[in-house]
Amino acid sequence: MIKRGSITKVTIILFSIYFYIFGWFSHSQYGLLQRYFYPTMLQTIKKNGTLNVVLINSSSTYYLGGDGKKGFEYELLSSYASHLGVDLDITVANTAKEALELSRDENIHITSALLAKTTQNEQLYNMGPAYLEVQEQMICNRLLYRASKFPKDTQTLSNLKIKTPTETKYSTTLKELLSEDPTIVATFSDDASIEEILAEVASGETDCTIVDSNIFSINQRYYSDLAYAFTIGSRDQLAWVLNTDSSGLKEDLYEWINIFTQSGELARIKDHYFDNNLVIDHMDSAMFYKRAKTLLPKYVEFFKEASIKYEIPYNVLVALSYQESQWNKNAVSPTGVRGLMMLTLDTAKTLKVVDRVDPRSSIIGGARHLRELMDRLDEKIVGEHRIKFALAAYNIGLGHIFDAIRLAEKMGKNAYAWQDLKSVLPLLAQRKHYSKLRHGYARGSEAIKYVESIFNYSDMLYNTPQESK
After folding, report:
1. Catalytic one among 75, 136, 324, 446?
2. pLDDT tens per residue, range 411-461
3. Nearest alpha-carbon partner for 199 in 180, 181, 221
4. Domain 133-238: what homologous superfamily?
5. 311 is catalytic
6. What is the bridge-based pairing of β-strands 68-70 and 63-65?
7. Mean pLDDT over each residue of the chain, to the nearest integer
């Protein structure tokens, strides 16, 4: 016979086990319900298959190049989207101020506003991991050297014209300098971007400006009259602004950026955009003539074949190839364009070029691509104008050329003449213009140099043994 006390103890033990199992089961199910009804931001992004980002339309961030979407920030975020296995959806801003305003949209996950990860900014925004170290620099026109006015430090800025965009960290720095030296001729622009102001400095319209080191590094390639004067302040770490609800996303970004850095990929992208050693002096005539004698003869028959097949002047095709690859059949850029005509993978697929480093395939493919660009232009663009328009499109993309044509028409210029288009192309880098154009920001000045360089090489060919075709 079982005693009453024993039954009580057994009952208590059974109830304890029951409540333990019930509690464990309830907790686990609650966790599942939480994840189902209240998914993290990261889970939502993966479920929807899209990472929504805001990028500023500029050379240091995001723009449409001749071979597609480009920009340091774009490549980083594109790599992160690939890591997540989702598409990258880009909302374009024209200024950092506009980017921050767009970041308030609850559907935006990451905003690149070139914002430093300072204590003050971290109080205002939900900042992600740092990805680039920069430093403010005073950049001036090198011709100030001749007038013995080139500044050496903050104490030698008297009477210099210094200009920055308003409501930026650069304008804040300039105001601090102005408080120390009231003789500085300071200008704060509501309309001009920092890149437009750098162009003004290069032209001598203003003496100096303040800009981050990464932006100067890119623009130094295109404006030979820009010169570094001195560094201002300490180094800053740039970081993205995240959605106020960044659950799961923020932790994953930190983990990814560490892996991306350790893999060497971050350094590779930095080198491509900010290392001036990548810039080649294409107008080195001695090297041109040397290669015209040693390398060009290997490919002459292919250039002649392509010239006849696609009705493009032989010299233009040869010069285009030198501009692109210096007649190096194995040439490859950090972005993956390859071969004598530096075709992108997508362009090669469209042209059915299987091997981009095969000399004949590359030359025939590049010539066909140039011909297709020429054929897509308005029939009113004729002769050499047509070739130059197409070459500019080969460099920055046909969409930007169409934008320039429309802008030229709007300004009352001859939209079918290269000389008039040349006066409009630089405007594609000015916010007041590109913000209203379909394809946005473009380095129109670079396209001009590109085309004129090719025609210079074309003329130089007449002085080499290759002039007979």
Report:
1. 324
2. 999 999 998 999 999 999 998 999 999 999 998 999 999 998 898 888 778
3. 221
4. Periplasmic binding protein-like II (3.40.190.10)
5. no
6. antiparallel
7. 88
